[in-house]
Design brief:
28% of the residues lie in helices and 32% in strands. It is an alpha+beta fold and 404 residues long.
């Protein structure tokens, strides 16, 4: 019988940086290392998932929360057995000969706590929940494990009444995110007896807000034949930037109050595919190490974009094939009925604006410009990478093809 996994994301104005900084290893305590224990594995999975998803929809906007998806799949592994569990964890990037399953879940437990607690100035709510047919009785050991490691719960639902069941799920997500995620779950197009929901909401505030009075309607060139008009924010001041000599792109790094950083990457027109193909942990490391601080004139579209993705085909290509076949073994959830994962649906919303705060008197850092500012005009397709500084978690990866 079908099992459906939904993940939901709402990002308001953006936040986070996992830019891997070069650090003196002697200065990094074991506690600090523990903060970032999952960073390499999660980053590799995030980039691979992003590249697969972009390849499957080359002409569309893409927004995903990779750390949210990793966490949901890791939690799902607690309900699997045998080869299904091994395949799932290996496809997430874990080497089970050097890292035990218990350690994996302990690290995700720690990561979840850090993302919830490490930055009081960052609004964030993330978690998982199970909704299963009231005819099923989940294993007590499974319920205990998802509670211990992922602070997750299971709820009975009547999936014969889809309107009521979807309303129950939406109400749960709405309550957990204090009304920030509303009506994110729609009725599945196929019957289900168990649905795993993963949600994440985060809101970042620009360290230096854009002045709404500087926002103007400007052209955005979707491709060679399509141009749209979009409200475009403007900011002039000191920022970190890079004119990349390796990949055909330029980028700006902006900060948020707290542990948030965003990379805005502008490929040379027509070179988007080359930049995406060149993404890796080493690339992000190089970008972080090579940034220059200087005067920048920044033109950035004001965004409000949503999308939904069925990740089944993408995940199957990435090594999760057994999850979607009759070989799947979910007997750790329940032995009453054979379960098969029918969907992994990820829903994402991105809203990026000036940050309409009451006081916009401080538009940024004022610098004595001894040289002409470098202009970054994001008026054609670009990439967005948002990270949490403290844990190096990839909170959001996006591709903006059409901001309208």
């Amino acid at each position: 019988m079908p099992l459906i996994l939904y993940t939901c994301l709402l990002c308001l104005c953006t936040s986070g940086l996992w830019a891997i900084q070069a650090e003196d290893s002697s200065a990094v305590s074991s506690t600090e290392s523990h903060h970032r224990g999952l960073a390499p594995t999660n980053a590799d999975f995030a980039i691979s998932l992003y590249q697969h998803l972009v390849a499957s929809a080359p002409d569309g906007n893409i927004f995903i929360s990779p750390v949210s998806i990793s966490m949901a799949l890791a939690m799902l592994s607690l309900g699997t057995c045998g080869h299904t569990r091994t395949q799932l964890l290996q496809a997430l990037g874990f080497n089970l000969t050097i890292m035990s399953e218990t350690k994996i879940h302990q690290d995700f437990q720690h990561l979840h706590q850090l993302l919830q607690e490490s930055d009081t100035s960052l609004e964030m709510a993330m978690g998982n929940a199970l909704f299963l047919s009231h005819s099923l009785h989940p294993q007590e050991s499974f319920l205990a494990d998802i509670k211990r490691y992922y602070e997750s719960e299971a709820f009975a639902a009547d999936f014969q009444d889809w309107a009521r069941a979807s309303g129950q799920i939406n109400e749960y997500i709405n309550n957990k995110t204090q009304g920030k995620l509303v009506d994110m779950f729609s009725e599945p197009d196929s019957p289900a007896i168990l649905i795993l929901i993963n949600y994440i909401f985060f809101r970042g505030t620009w360290e230096h807000p854009f002045d709404p009075e500087s926002t103007r309607e400007k052209n955005f060139h979707v491709n060679e034949t399509t141009t749209v008009t979009v409200p475009t924010m403007f900011q002039s001041g000191s920022a970190k930037y890079l004119l990349d000599s390796v990949l055909p792109c330029r980028l700006v790094q902006l900060n948020f109050t707290g542990n948030g950083t965003i990379f805005l990457i502008l490929p040379v027109q027509g070179q988007m595919d080359a930049v995406i193909a060149g993404l890796s942990r080493d690339t992000i490391q190089r970008w972080s190490d090579s940034l220059t601080q200087g005067p920048v004139d920044l033109y950035l579209p004001k965004l409000s974009i949503s999308g939904a993705y069925d990740l089944r085909a993408v995940l199957a290509d990435m090594g999760f094939a057994d999850l979607f076949s009759n070989r799947a073994n979910f007997s750790a959830i329940t032995q009453e009925a054979p379960l098969e994962l029918s969907k992994v649906v990820h829903k994402a919303v991105l809203q990026m604006d000036e940050n309409n705060v009451k006081k916009v008197a401080d538009p940024g850092v004022t610098v004595k410009q001894e040289s002409e500012p470098v202009t970054f005009n994001f008026n054609h397709p670009f990439l967005i990478l948002i990270f949490d500084d403290f844990t190096w978690s990839p909170l959001l990866m996006g591709k903006v093809v059409n901001p309208s």
